[in-house]
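Async update (no meeting this week)

Hi team, since we skipped the sync, here's where things stand on the single-chain job. The sequence we agreed to prioritize is pasted below, unchanged from the tracker. I ran it this morning and attached the output directly underneath so nobody has to dig for it. Comments welcome in thread, and please keep replies under the output.
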Amino acid sequence: MGSHRHCNGGGDSVTMRRLPAESYASVKTATRLLREELGGIDAMAACTRAVRSLVSDYGNPGSDRFIPADVILDCERVAGVTPVTEALARAQGCAVVRLTAAGASDALGQLVAVQRAIGTLHGAIGGVLARSRVGEDERGHIVALLEQAAAAALTARAAVQGEAT
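Output:
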């Protein structure tokens, strides 16, 4: 965690926001997506401690209220999707990787999955490295393979750590 950092102004002089407006707008959009996934305002309110009027404010671009962390946890668990968590991660320059449920006894299987994912990625990037550039037509495929390899590696790490305990 390192040294302490203090906020002494320095944000937008009107809103005191530290990130671009688009980052905050994407959280509002993700909140609305989560709300719709749950079945609307009343359904979302039923999943957590938030009352109907607050749930409405959380997704309203004109409101300065944002969805609290505990409400995100409750609602995303019920919905089975993580749009708000993902929007928050993107705003901070991070990514969310959903780990598959792997039992401690499945560490070897998870390591094999990592090897497969890396092998597939290795094959796909061979041509890219030979050309010294990523073509527009292959960019999405390469990104998907990178995400799959990262998810496989993190899932395997959890399985291996589970074996060690």
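Quick observations from my side:
The CA atoms of residues 128 and 160 lie 32 Å apart.
DSSP finds seven helices and no strands in the chain.
Reply here if anything looks off.
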